[in-house]
Amino acid sequence: MAYLASPRETKAIIDSYSFAFQKKFGQNFLIDANVLERIIDDGGITKDDFVLEIGPGIGTMTQYLCESAREVMAVEIDSNLIPILNYTLSEYDNVEIINEDALKLDFKKIVKEKNNGEPIKVVANLPYYITTPIVMGLLESKAPIESITIMVQKEVAHRMQTGPGSKEYGALSLAVQYYADAEVVLEVSAGCFMPRPKVDSSVIHLQIYKEPPVKVCDEEMMFKIIRASFNQRRKTLANGLKNAPNLPFTKEEIEDSIIKLGKDVNIRGEKLTLQEFAKLTDILMGEEESY
């Protein structure tokens, strides 16, 4: 039975193992049972699911996952937490604890070996400092993933689902929206964690698309263009692309393509939608005849 979701139980476990929080791992443990239940519910976790959990901590959410899922793989980078996890998860026979750096995992290999190549679900209370690389690593791996339900810094969650014109809108927004339908499902105050972080958090659910919502002739090139357009937000789109060392286009080609897109040559990248970035990529690559 899941029992760790309280300040008293969490403190008791931490004290009994003389565990010291490590700032470099961004460790903040959830202590609110209502939030944990919502994450399981919003993640749509059922007994048919293989779930990959990143950053289980002392196993608070892992216990809930074990009770709701068919099988759980919990990946924890901090070796000091492994003895604690072995204890707190000892009554469950459907969990595997892995002492690894999630940023170095081969997600495709995990899905193939652990779930016969069938889509998995990912659930995590992510340390703030690795949120973007973990999310992008999962999405760009092209591993069979059905959904990703994660607790992240509130500002980052809203950045993932925001649209053009917002100050939060950027390369992360576009990348997430290319791969998934993103929805913030829960706001979580700092008081729901031990130790208490300096900022509030949000739970965001990413339902992975079977096919991207836009078609583009060269996906890799599109994301190079997107990143270049946001590298210097104060510059115009044309200047951002012109100054990017990894883009092979001349100033004239860039400006002509922006005009062909139907935009003012002085527009900033933050004004373009995902569809417009896809179209701009096709124009620059000479594939605009499809429009």
Question: What can you see in these coordinates?
Answer:
The chain has helices at 7-16, 33-42, 60-68, 82-88, 107-115, 131-140, 154-161, 171-179, 219-231, 237-242, 251-260, 274-284, and strands at residues 29-30, 50-54, 71-75, 95-98, 120-125, 145-153, 180-188, 193-194, 201-208. By secondary structure, the protein is of the alpha/beta class. Helix 6 (131-140) runs parallel beside helix 8 and helix 9 (219-231) packs across helix 12 (274-284). The chain is elongated.
How many distinct helices? 12
User: Kindly, what is the distance between the CA atoms of the first and last residues, rounded to a whole number of angstroms?
Assistant: 57 Å
Listing every helix as H and every strand as E from the N terminus to the C terminus, the arrangement reads HEHEHEHEHEHEHHEEEHHHH
The helical percent reads 25-40%
Note the overall shape.
Answer: elongated
Describe the largest sheet.
7 strands, mixed
Compute the number of strand runs.
9
Percent strand: 15-25%
Q: How are the strands of the biggest sheet laid out side by side?
A: 4-3-2-5-6-9-7
Protein structure class: alpha/beta
Low-confidence stretches: none
